[in-house]
Structures are given as structure tokens and as C-alpha cells.
Amino acid sequence: MEHRLSAEDRKKQLVKIGLMMLRTKPIHELSIDAIAGQAGISRGLLFHYFPSKRDYYVAVISAAGRRLLRVTKADESLPPEEQLREMLVQFVAFIARRRPAYISFVRGAAGGDDYAVEVYDETRAGLTKRILTYIGMPEVADEPTSPEYLRIHAWLSYTEDLALEWSGLPEKDRPYDANHLIDHAIEALHTLRKL
Asked: CA 48 to CA 11: how far, in whole Å?
């Protein structure tokens, strides 16, 4: 007899399938029929768990954002400078490992899909606040209009783009390794903070 999943487990399964497919396709190209088929359910049943295609896409892209925040969270027992480095090591590794999915996450936001923009902005804000804490400025973490918050937010975009471009090169053609990229990003952060 086939084991029936609870509603919550089925939703998790469907989101997990979407995350797997997101590795090779942008969010708006995920096929609801293919996802339902992989889960062994009908398209109609998928819409029992998610009222619309948009609701499903929001659930998948939100899970992607939470995953990024989770895997880049540094060990809190480390000194702040080492927490920053550990976060960047994980951030660069995440982008390199999941480059197509990460690009679809960024481009979904850049393409103006309101749900993607919102999730991307929340994820970026979470990373920015974390970095502000690591550099000893937790008091401005909730002040998105402060010059320091804006500077860190922009630096994160620079680091993200650098990691995306670097990870897109064949390994033999990369001008440096991941450690050099991280050293450079940290140096750029310290330089920016002096301006």
C-alpha cells in the first residue's frame, strides 16, 4: 500500500522538486506539469496545495532565499572578522555550486517579477544586516537609509557579481582561486568603509 504524505510533507516535497529544477531553469520556466509528474500527482492536486502558479513560485523562490541565508550563516563562536570570512566562503561556494539557479534568482528579481524582487530584497537585506553585525555596526542593521547600510548593500552586489563572473569561467581560465576572490572582497569592503 502506498504511503500518503501529509499536506505539509507534500508541500515540502513539491517545493524541493522546484528547487531541484531551479538549478537549470529560471523560476518562470518551471513546468507545473513536470513538477506534478515528478511528485506522482496530478496538476490539479498541485493546485490543491498551492492556489496558483504564482503561489507555488513564491514558495520555491522563498525556500531558495532561506537556503542561502542558512548556508551562509557563520559560526557565532568565531571572532567577527572570521565570521565575515566564513560567510563569504559559503556565499562564493553557494554561487559557484548553484550558478544557474542563483542567476535565475537574481534575474527573476531583475526581470521585475514582483514576488522574486521581494524575496531577493529580503534575502539581500538579511545578508546586509549580518555583515553590519560582523563589522561591529549592528545599530544600523535596521536603518536601510543610513550611509553605512547602503554602502554594505552595494558592496554585497559587487561581491555577488564578482563571484558570478568568476564562477562562470572554466576553472582553468579563472585568474585566481576562491580564497583570493574572498581576500579581495574583504579588502574592497575595508577600502569602501574608509571613503
From this structure: 10
Rounded to an integer, the average pLDDT of 57-70 is: 92
Q: How close are the terminal C-alpha atoms of the chain, in Å?
A: 67
Give the separation between CA 134 and CA 65, rounded to whole angstroms.
20
The C-alpha atoms of residue 2 and residue 13 are separated, in whole angstroms, by: 16
* CA distances, 95 to each of 35, 77, 88, 106, 117 (Å): 24, 25, 10, 11, 18
Dihedral, 44, 50, 53, 59 alpha carbons, nearest 10: -150
| pTM attached to this predicted model | 0.86
- CB-based contacts of 100: which residues, under 8 Å, 6+ apart? 23, 24, 25
What percent of the chain has a predicted confidence (pLDDT) above 90?
Answer: 72
- Distances in Å between the Cα of 168 and the Cα atoms of 27, 103, 109, 125, 135 are 20, 11, 20, 25, 29
What number of other Cβ atoms are within 10 A of residue 67's Cβ?
Answer: 15
DSSP letter at 42 equals -
Task: Give the span between the Cα atoms of 16 and 60, in whole angstroms.
Answer: 8
Beta carbons within 10 angstroms of residue 171's beta carbon: 8
